[in-house]
């Protein structure tokens, strides 16, 4: 089985370029604007899209992404509408990989089998579910793989060599290396330290390794791009979106552009990187 | 749901932390290695006689155990039915049952070499117990408490600060216990290398529900022995309030395989079950939050709903996973009491017995007021008086004067 994720990373490898992965929250600040933002991302240089599923209790997220989720929920966003965003996006873009990222409860309540079928038919390529470690693989990971979706696992600084094989066993698509022990929006890790961690994980897997948490600027994205197969930016984009809203938290004429412009600047940083190692 | 009766109600969880479909380890990867370490440390401690000797020493001389099993004569006369005994957990050092569990977890943290302790707290009783033992053992203590709870449980905030803890008012979400737990988990993910998360109830990822239950089971074990001594037999029923369910589980667990013992857990019905409340079994369904699968209050999209209770310690949209299982298999009966019923019980116990209960166990007393009159005079009923009401005196005083709601 080859997914859009596999195809995209294979292309980038041929080009000798590291991937630029963007995260935005589905439904932030409202479902219609959110769709426009998602559509704008590939045009601005995003190679892979991570779309957040809003949840009331995001235990691994910092204040920016917490607030983004609450804005989306307030605007009436649901998991079903999140899948609608993906379906609408796919009408004009059949190449950019799209990964849903979130927490397990909304998926569990939607119903795992129904969710996987609907996600697949909407054009979702992979899932990142923060609160499903390998110990809970029977819940969603194994069924997702059977349904033809990638299940992308997080590896962290606390995932030591002994544990890495367990984390990597049912991982597909790419590995998401969380560069710090912490929540989204926290301080960045040093690129050299990240480089060592990526090299360590590479000894255990042939999958691409993307690095996220704490990357906010084109310079930082470039530094990470030189060490890894991809860099993920989320909080900085969510902050740019938030700063474009009016006093009531509603979208303005500037909102889509605010996200697109930062995406373009970050994408340039990534493209300026010297070829990634390995 | 009906499920085949197990041979024993006391054999859970399985090796992956499941009680039937409930429990589990739904946490971020960053925490997983630490949770596995904790499980190992706990297994080793349990098998180490020195651990128990040390625990028992502090339980006796620092906490003041055993807590009395007291015959509430005037309450019994007033209600005119079952003979009511109060398990006096409110007499423990720090004023509630929470200290039993905190002592155990602090002993574990010491064995694991952790120097920084974090905790979430609702009513502040768990926070006070944690701050107390951190002071005793010279450990750094950081407590997360919803901003709403900081407001309504001021006396406990002051106590924690006097004990040297740092209290962080949590402004996110509903600003109550659920959000305090989110914030504690965020701290833990950030500081895993030196931090021990001291969870205050029988919830969270495996092994927490089990180890908290084990540390709290001293309540039920003592009750069994004390009842044997005064009445020469088992009690006929047990009643306890439920926030996450630790005081209840501590009382219930040793009796689960005694079929003659009726068991009642009391959730907080807030303004009533058709309005805002905190009764996750009565009004919720199975979902995943804070590391475990359990009954939760949520909407059709799986978004967690606001809970409400007059009692900060019960104001939580979930319940420990073992309770969810005991409900599904039908061993424990889960009831609920409203804010108003709890307030009436708070006043009744104060006036009849000279014991001001915390608002949390006032919910249990409220159901005793219904259950006891329907039972014969030789029926032995034990209520867990999980904490004292000092912390609630300002809040209840205001409500009774009509100043706040
Ligand atoms: C006195 C008292 N009882 C009960 C509770 C509820 O917790 P649990 O259900 O874990 O016993 C609390 C929590 O703050 C409490 O302070």
TrEMBL record, chain A:
Q: State a single Pfam family of this protein.
A: Trp_syntA
Asked if the Swiss-Prot or TrEMBL record annotates the protein with the keyword Amino-acid biosynthesis, the reply is: yes
Q: Which domain of life is it from?
A: Bacteria
**UniProt cross-references to CDD domains, sorted A to Z:** Tryptophan_synthase_alpha
Question: Which reactions fall under this protein's catalytic activity?
Answer: (1S,2R)-1-C-(indol-3-yl)glycerol 3-phosphate + L-serine = D-glyceraldehyde 3-phosphate + L-tryptophan + H2O
EC class (word): lyase
SUPFAM superfamilies annotated for this entry? Ribulose-phoshate binding barrel
* Biological or metabolic pathway of the protein: Amino-acid biosynthesis; L-tryptophan biosynthesis; L-tryptophan from chorismate: step 5/5
Stated EC number for the protein is 4.2.1.20
Record: active site: 50 (proton acceptor), 61 (proton acceptor)
Keyword Lyase in annotation:
yes
Keywords attached to this entry: Amino-acid biosynthesis, Aromatic amino acid biosynthesis, Lyase, Tryptophan biosynthesis
Q: Supply the InterPro entries for this chain.
A: Aldolase_TIM, RibuloseP-bd_barrel, Trp_synthase_alpha_AS, Trp_synthase_suA
Whom does it interact with, and what assembly results? Tetramer of two alpha and two beta chains.
| Role according to the record | The alpha subunit is responsible for the aldol cleavage of indoleglycerol phosphate to indole and glyceraldehyde 3-phosphate.
Which family does the record claim for this protein?
A: Belongs to the TrpA family.
| Protein name per the record | Tryptophan synthase alpha chain
Q: Which organism is it from?
A: Bradyrhizobium campsiandrae
Q: Which classification does the entry list for the species?
A: Bacteria, Pseudomonadati, Pseudomonadota, Alphaproteobacteria, Hyphomicrobiales
Question: What gene is it encoded by?
Answer: trpA
UniProtKB/TrEMBL annotation, chain B:
**SUPFAM superfamilies assigned:** Tryptophan synthase beta subunit-like PLP-dependent enzymes
Q: Which cofactor does this sequence's record say it needs?
A: pyridoxal 5'-phosphate
- Highest taxon in the source lineage: Bacteria
N6-(pyridoxal phosphate)lysine occurs at which residues? 98
- Enzyme group, top EC level? lyase
Q: Which UniProt keywords apply?
A: Amino-acid biosynthesis, Aromatic amino acid biosynthesis, Lyase, Pyridoxal phosphate, Tryptophan biosynthesis
> Where does the Tryptophan synthase beta chain-like PALP domain start and stop, copy by copy?
64-387
One GO MF term, please? tryptophan synthase activity
Gene3D superfamilies, alphabetized:
3.40.50.1100
Whether Amino-acid biosynthesis counts among this entry's keywords is yes
UniProt entry tagged with the keyword Mitochondrion:
no
The protein's assembly and partners = Tetramer of two alpha and two beta chains.
Record's protein name: Tryptophan synthase beta chain
Tell me which species this is from. Answer: Bradyrhizobium campsiandrae
């Amino acid at each position: 089985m080859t997914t859009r994720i596999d195809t995209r990373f294979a292309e980038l490898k041929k080009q000798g370029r590291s991937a630029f992965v963007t995260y935005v929250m589905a439904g932030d600040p409202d479902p219609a604007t959110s769709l426009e933002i998602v559509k704008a991302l590939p045009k601005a240089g995003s190679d892979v899209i991570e779309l957040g599923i809003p949840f009331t209790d995001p235990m691994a997220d910092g204040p920016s992404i917490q607030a983004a989720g609450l804005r989306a929920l307030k605007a009436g966003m649901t998991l079903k509408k999140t899948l609608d965003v993906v379906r609408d996006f796919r009408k004009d873009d059949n190449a950019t990989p799209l990964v849903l990222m979130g927490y397990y409860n909304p998926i569990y309540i939607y119903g795992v089998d129904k969710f996987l079928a609907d996600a697949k038919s909407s054009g979702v390529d992979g899932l990142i579910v923060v609160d499903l470690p390998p110990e809970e693989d029977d819940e969603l990971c194994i069924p997702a793989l059977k349904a033809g979706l990638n299940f992308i696992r997080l590896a962290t600084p606390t995932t030591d060599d002994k544990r890495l094989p367990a984390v990597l066993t049912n991982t597909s698509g790419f590995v998401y290396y969380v560069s710090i022990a912490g929540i989204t929006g926290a301080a960045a890790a040093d690129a050299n330290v990240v480089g060592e961690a990526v090299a360590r994980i590479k000894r255990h897997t042939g999958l691409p390794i993307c690095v996220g948490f704490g990357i906010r600027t084109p310079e930082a994205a470039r530094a990470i791009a030189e060490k890894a197969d991809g860099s993920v930016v989320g909080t900085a984009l969510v902050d740019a979106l938030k700063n474009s809203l009016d006093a009531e938290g509603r979208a303005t004429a500037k909102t889509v552009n605010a996200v697109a412009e930062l995406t373009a600047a970050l994408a340039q940083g990534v493209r300026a990187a010297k070829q990634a190692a390995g | 749901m009906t499920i085949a009766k197990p041979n024993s109600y006391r054999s859970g969880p399985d090796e992956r932390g499941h009680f039937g479909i409930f429990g589990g380890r739904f946490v971020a990867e960053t925490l997983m290695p630490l949770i596995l370490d904790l499980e190992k440390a706990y297994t080793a401690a349990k098998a180490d006689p020195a651990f128990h000797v040390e625990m028992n020493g502090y339980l006796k001389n620092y906490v003041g155990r055993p807590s009395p099993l007291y015959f509430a004569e005037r309450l019994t006369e007033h209600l005119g039915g079952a003979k009511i005994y109060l398990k006096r957990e409110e007499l423990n050092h720090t004023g509630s049952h929470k200290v039993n569990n905190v002592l155990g977890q602090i002993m574990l943290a010491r064995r694991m070499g952790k120097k920084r302790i974090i905790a979430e707290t609702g009513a502040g009783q768990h926070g006070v117990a944690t701050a107390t033992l951190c002071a005793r053992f010279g450990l750094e203590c950081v407590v997360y408490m919803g901003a709403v709870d900081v407001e309504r449980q001021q006396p406990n905030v002051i106590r924690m600060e006097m004990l040297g803890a740092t209290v962080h008012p949590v402004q996110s979400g509903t600003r109550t216990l659920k959000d305090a737990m989110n914030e504690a988990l965020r701290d833990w993910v950030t500081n895993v290398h030196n931090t021990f998360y001291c969870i205050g109830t029988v919830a969270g990822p495996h092994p927490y529900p089990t180890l908290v239950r084990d540390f709290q089971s001293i309540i039920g074990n003592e009750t069994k022995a004390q009842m044997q001594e005064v009445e020469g037999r088992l009690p006929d029923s047990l009643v306890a309030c439920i926030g996450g369910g630790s005081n209840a589980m501590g009382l219930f667990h040793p009796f689960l395989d005694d079929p003659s013992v009726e068991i009642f857990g009391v959730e907080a019905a807030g303004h009533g079950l058709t309005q805002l409340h905190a009764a996750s079994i009565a009004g919720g369904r199975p979902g995943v939050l804070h590391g475990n699968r359990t009954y939760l209050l949520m909407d059709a999209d799986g978004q967690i709903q606001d809970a409400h209770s007059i009692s900060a310690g019960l104001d939580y949209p979930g319940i420990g996973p073992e309770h969810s299982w005991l409900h599904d298999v039908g061993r424990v009966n889960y009831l609920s009491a409203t804010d108003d019923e709890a307030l009436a019980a708070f006043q009744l116990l104060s006036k009849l017995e000279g014991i001001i209960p915390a608002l949390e166990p006032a919910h249990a007393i409220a159901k005793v007021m219904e259950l006891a009159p329907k039972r014969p005079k030789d029926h032995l009923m034990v209520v867990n008086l999980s904490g004292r009401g000092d912390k609630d005196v300002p809040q209840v005083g205001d409500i009774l004067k009509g100043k706040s709601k």
